[in-house]
Amino acid sequence: MIYGASGVGKESVARELAKRNYWRLFPQHLAFDISCAAVGFGNDGFEAFQRKICVEALQTMIDKKTNGVVFTFCYVHLASNYFIEGLFELLKRNHIAPNFIRISCAYDEHVSRVINPGRKNTNKIQSKAYLDKYLRDFDFSTNIPNVETFHIDNTHMTVQATAEKIECYLQKN
Hints:
Layout (H helix, E strand, L loop, with lengths): L1 E2 L6 H12 L2 E4 L1 H10 L7 H18 L5 E5 L7 H13 L6 E5 L2 H8 L13 H10 L11 E5 L5 H14 L1
Parallel strand pairs: 1-3, 1-4, 2-3, 4-5
């Protein structure tokens, strides 16, 4: 489980990890996009619908005995706890002990990544102004309560180096 603010490189690192280890990738933003289309962001039932999509997708991967899954998501302290509770219920029900990795980077690097042309044609943050508002409105600097989290500041790291650091951590744990 890789979490952090939008634009810090979670999905890029997750894609690299999945490729290197023959795991599946499930970025939460897929469920977010579906929930926006079906329910509308901020409307009643949005969080429940998004959680349902994620839990059902992950349960399907578990049922199919998927070799491994890298799940990426934005954990917003307190606001995401409803989502996290559903995730923990799924993990407990399936006797899975996950690893939690939080990725962050320095502000200037964060801006550079967000405005990168590679993010065009996505529903992801693509401007400094939007990123600034996003970082003012939400707390992404807090680890998920009651779980061990491995934190990586990948400001000066390549995607490959970040993936290698995560693999070293996973081998030790």
